[in-house]
Design a protein that fits this description.
Blueprint lengths: L32 H14 L7 H12 L11 H13 L6
Length: about 100
């Protein structure tokens, strides 16, 4: 008698209470931080009233005066995971 052919079982997700993505909204780094660090380091080494740091001060002012980028929309991945996880996981007995 020939052996029966069976389909491999579909992979099942482990029993999780929640399926979430950690920190989906990463903040963008401020582009003025590098210039500010340079200026503070220069002030620390040669004093606050040093004339040599005028170029750094002007570049920092120009950077700070630039328009801020528009806010990013909030990522909705966790909302959709919460909504779809019961359909992916399948039926479960209520304890």
């Amino acid at each position: 008698m020939p052996p029966k052919t069976t389909k491999p079982a579909a992979p099942r997700l482990p029993p999780l209470q929640k399926l979430r993505v950690r920190r989906p909204n990463q903040a963008q780094a401020n582009p003025c931080v590098g210039i500010m660090t340079s200026m503070l380091g220069y002030w620390a080494s040669s004093g606050y009233s040093a004339q040599g740091c005028m170029a750094l001060e002007q570049s920092l002012r120009a950077c700070m005066d630039q328009a801020k980028p528009e806010k990013q929309k909030k990522n909705t991945i966790n909302y959709h995971l919460m909504r779809l996880y019961p359909k992916i996981r399948g039926a479960r007995k209520i304890d």
